[in-house]
Amino acid sequence: MPFMGIDILPIAITIFWIWMLVDCITNQNLRGGSKIFWLLVIFFSHIIGAVIYFFMRCTQKNPVTAFTYYYQQIRTFIRQSAAQPTPPRQAYTYNEYQQGYQARQTPEQPVQPVQYQPQEPPLYTPPKAEYDEQLTIPYPEMPQQK
User: Fold this and answer.
1) What pLDDT is recorded for position 102?
2) Is the torsion defined by CA of 97, 101, 102, 104 positive or negative?
3) How far is 136 from 138, CA to CA, in rounded Å?
4) Within a 13 Å sphere around the CA of 44, how many CA atoms are in the beta-carbon half?
5) CA distance 40 to 37
6) Which of 49, 91, 118, 141, CA to CA, is 20 to 30 A from 103?
7) What does the alpha-carbon distance between residue 58 and residue 42 come to, in Å, rounded to a whole number?
8) pLDDT at 48
9) CB atoms within 10 A of CB 83
10) Residues with Cβ < 8 Å from 69, sequence gap 6 or more?
């Protein structure tokens, strides 16, 4: 029976399905692989998986208390993630830079010119190829099938 042009049953089923997904995510008793398993079961089997989860693992079976419980869980999670103290900034002093740039004082030493030393030829030089092209080796043809 439509209620102002909207069917109530699909909306109720969707709300129940979302309720079971949220319960599975916030369930403290489920860990690691079992939580992922139940999330996949609920997500892919929709109402059937949600009903099975409701009777087997659901922590908040009363919808009135469930809403307040989930609200508190999500609120504490957000507070914990937002309350991460930022490390204090270190106060850097710029004593070296306050005086401005000053060139380093280097002792006066004559610059020695680099002397050129001829390189000795290598002991072995590989022979040069006769052709500039790369050689291609053809594969033998397959014998004709009779």
Assistant:
1) 59
2) positive
3) 6
4) 6
5) 5
6) 91
7) 12
8) 93
9) 7
10) 26, 59, 60
CA dist 106 and 104 (Å) reads: 6
Beta carbons of 56 and 41 less than 8 angstroms apart: no
- pLDDT truncated to tens, each residue of the chain (146 aa)? 555 667 888 888 998 898 889 888 888 888 888 889 999 999 999 899 999 988 888 877 777 787 788 788 778 878 877 756 666 665 555 555 555 555 566 666 666 777 777 777 777 777 776 666 666 777 777 777 76
Amino acid at 43: F
pLDDT, residue 43, reads: 92
C-alpha distance from residue 124 to each of 119, 120, 121, 127 (Å): 14, 12, 9, 9
**What is the phi/psi pair of residue 21, to 5°?**
-65, -45
End-to-end, the C-alpha distance of the chain in Å comes to 77
User: What are the residues whose beta carbons fall under 8 Å from the beta carbon of 114, sequence distance 6 or more?
Assistant: none
pLDDT at 40: 92
Closest CA to 35 of 55, 18, 57: 57
Structure tokens at 27: 């369930």
d(CA 19, CA 23): 6
